[in-house]
Design brief:
Length: 271
Amino acid sequence: MAIVSAFLLPGSPLPEVQRDNPPWGALADAMDIAGGALAKSNPDTIAIYSTQWLAVLDQLWQTRPHVKGLHVDENWHEYGELVFDMHTDIKLTEAIIDATPNVGIRSKGVDYDAFPVDTGTIIASNFLNPHGDYPTVVTSNNLYHDWAMTESLGRCVREQAEKLNRRIAVVGVGGLSGSIFRNTIDIKEDKIATEEEDSWNRRILALLESGDVEGLIEVAPEYASNARADMGFKHMAFLLGAMDGHFKGATVHGYGPLYGSGGAVVEFDVD
């Protein structure tokens, strides 16, 4: 089986840059647990889909062999910078690029110095691969791809990994409910912006825990609308495609607020 582990992570920098704030530190602790679980699964490569790497014309893929630098998040710049250092699994990435036209997706690699790596990808790499032990396949969120096409993308990643005998950990990076506080808050008292969105988040997490894929797919559009889910919750579609449309259940290592929005750290049971 190509997929040896799978995770859903929030892409916010707040757990890393302000870990001493209890609500955000709890999510950081949860991501550390996820990192340990990923290491235990012993992947050859980590495949990352981040809602924050926005693409419009083509499906973009990182093809620079070594990507490193400093990044300041465009929304939370006051909390400081993020350091990143990643190596790319070029062979697998190029195989996926060549294969995506077969599922109606046109892809293109990006390879240039000082490429603006998005916050979500950096957060996933820093927590799940802190020592750079695993090469990565990193792809974008094309704004014109719907749930079905994004699921096809995840499926293509899995199929090419199988052909190359790669054991991969697959990571969907994105938030849950999307409302944030527009006013200054006491960050120690951070909470989900509305009770309705909190309720929706918990309903979705319960479906993941129980492995109820049919129920998840049925309510996903309503969830995306009512809870303003990050990018329509497409990062879950990518994970579903990579997991061949099913998983036995999931463990929610952490759930909490990120300045009003919802974030969760979820490990899927792919055995």
